[in-house]
Amino acid sequence: MSASTVPAPRPPLRVALAGIGVVGGGVVRLLEANRDLIARRAGRPVEIVAISARDRHRDRGIDLARYRWEDDMGALVAADDVDVVVEMIGGADGAALTLARQTLGAGKALVTANKAMIAHHGLDLARLAEEKDTPLKYEAAVAGGIPVIKAIREGASANEIARVYGILNGTCNYILTQMERNGASFAEALAAAQAEGYAEADPTFDVDGIDAAHKLSILAALCFGTKLDIDAVTADGIRNLTAADIREAEALGHRVRLIGMAERDSGENGGGLYQHVQPCLVPSDHPLAYVPGALNAVVAEGNFVGRLFFEGAGAGAGPTASAIVADIIDIARDEYGPAFAMPVDSLDQAPAADAGARIGKHYVRLIVEDRIGVLAEIAAAMRDAGVSIESLIQRGGDDEDSVIIVLVTHEGPANAIHAALGILAASDHVVGTPMHMPILAL
Amino acid sequence: MSASTVPAPRPPLRVALAGIGVVGGGVVRLLEANRDLIARRAGRPVEIVAISARDRHRDRGIDLARYRWEDDMGALVAADDVDVVVEMIGGADGAALTLARQTLGAGKALVTANKAMIAHHGLDLARLAEEKDTPLKYEAAVAGGIPVIKAIREGASANEIARVYGILNGTCNYILTQMERNGASFAEALAAAQAEGYAEADPTFDVDGIDAAHKLSILAALCFGTKLDIDAVTADGIRNLTAADIREAEALGHRVRLIGMAERDSGENGGGLYQHVQPCLVPSDHPLAYVPGALNAVVAEGNFVGRLFFEGAGAGAGPTASAIVADIIDIARDEYGPAFAMPVDSLDQAPAADAGARIGKHYVRLIVEDRIGVLAEIAAAMRDAGVSIESLIQRGGDDEDSVIIVLVTHEGPANAIHAALGILAASDHVVGTPMHMPILAL
């Protein structure tokens, strides 16, 4: 080719970073380490021009002296030489939200890893981005380094998605894998996760399914073209799981995983949207059963493509930085569009489907006193609540006086299980809290 | 928002389809079935305006009467009302290549599922697309419905990729899975695959690894920013695998998969690019070991994101159409860039690395006569070739007079294995062709 066909080089994309913790440090390292490669792929250099965080003098193990420091985050937005602000402050509201609004309001591009903020304020932010015709990108908010936002927003864009589900919280998956391998209790596995840095001192956000709920609400909006509705997501965590549940699941050819699932109701119950985070039994011939440790994985089922499965690191400095910088490169390439694939005003408002009406097989585990008549009492409660039993196993419990009863039901609504357990709650012979989990249908 | 901020609706994107076989039929069905959804996601309607194929009157099970028919494919390019030509003719050269050149030469967008054409002529076509500033998209050419081109080109774009590898041919994976489950021979499993429609009457392209080689060369160019070089890809197929190999691999805790792998040489051997398709032993704790039937899966290892794993349908009308229409939607959104992520002239020219110098553990299987001294002969050949043996198993063979010997080597170059087998080729006691496969390192 002649030299005359080479286009003029594009000016650098100038990036400001807000919040330099583990992830922010990862972004600095990545942009430095892969600088030349990124310039080639983005078609222009990507340069950090300014940084802001709470504490300038904290030792972060990286040299930030070469970058301009701003004590006031607002100065990143006001600066003439900033094209993109990367928000890594965290929290649904407060400083993160203020910065996000200022950035988009000023017509600058916003990249964020903040799942809580997107789950709660994503629609408002997307609307603001549209008004100002500026990018809002959040690949790192769901499943860390896995490019699942892009895979669904663009890769699967030709498909009507029937359901989207997956392992959206690495902390819980690490705990479940520990319980599986060592026969550990939940408390022991949690302590191990905390020791390894996979769980926080206060693990509520992770183990109660709140973090997964944030991510699920974002996936649902993208998959179904609906308005983000975090309040419609119900979440049950993994605190009530026992070592016996993990063992019994295994005996049934399954593994327990905390699954966030969003699905269009079949229509009989009003055609709403089901969004639930809960522990499930995953059949051993499903790829989610093999997702180990702190990994994340997402499944999307499209009406033409069939089942797509994506797996990778769901957290950590490197993977999260990878997703953030991928967003920055998209912006550098001018390859972006509406944050939720279509303008906010054209997203549907889907009613929440009744999770209790959802049909499926269930696992139920009870610990009961070892005495005559208890099994009859359970069988009667199931019958009276309309639960049809496919199989039942009784085993010796952890002490002499109790036995474990595990049932697998035929297909039926979750509400019937709740009703049966409501009847049994009045029994003097049931010990502790029963556990019930849906069995994932292939 | 006030009505005044709503942008004017964009005009439809007008698509012409060339070649209406299984895949073309899938594209017509998809664009019809998901019409409204696609218009919402693309920001504009996508309309088929013209169709061309060899035989107008063949029964394809779909009504094509509503679309303009052109006997001459060139008329699709010449038509004023065509924005995008979708090439589904197939073949590296001939009519497909002529149409591709005409389309890009006319400044129109080209979408293709043609892996052979991209592998052989992708660079020339990409250069033509750049000159004319028009899109060239080929998501369907690699791994069918899995959006792996997008995941690597964009999702993992922040990373230096250390290696990319995967199951790129569903026919071979179907055959290997059959052999695994039923203890079938290669010939029996191939016949089953042909009966199920997973293999062609002449299976050469699939079972000899040629199809996988085409796809691998495309992935390598994208991952490493190098010029496509199909001639540098070496391919060994699965014809020589026996039921015993599958069984022995299983006994070693592995499964046999046909793996296409591209990797940067460590530098000691010149820093070239290794591109090889061959059967490998995959450890049972690697996700590729669980990819069943005709599915495809791709792994990319990035220096920040770590290991990404993508699985889905690698062929078939629906999945291939999904990938083709995703490309069309990207074009409708104006979200596209250089075909290989950067301009052709800035791609590196990487020398081919010497596959034989590659270090790894190997599986070697020999069938030998059951007599004194044979084992000593094998051990001597390995020693003389510098192959260090980690483990060795001898079992009774399929008949009374022979035994199977399976060795696993310590890490060493493939060349040493070739040398040892070269020495043993002269032996009167080795029966049939020995098999050797690398063991995939995690």
Automatic annotation (TrEMBL), chains A, B:
Any Gene Ontology biological process: threonine biosynthetic process
Active-site residues (renumbered): 215
Sequence positions that bind L-homoserine: 200
Ranges of residues in domain ACT: 363-442
Binding positions for NADP(+) per the UniProt entry: 18-25
Family under the similarity heading: Belongs to the homoserine dehydrogenase family.
Protein name: Homoserine dehydrogenase
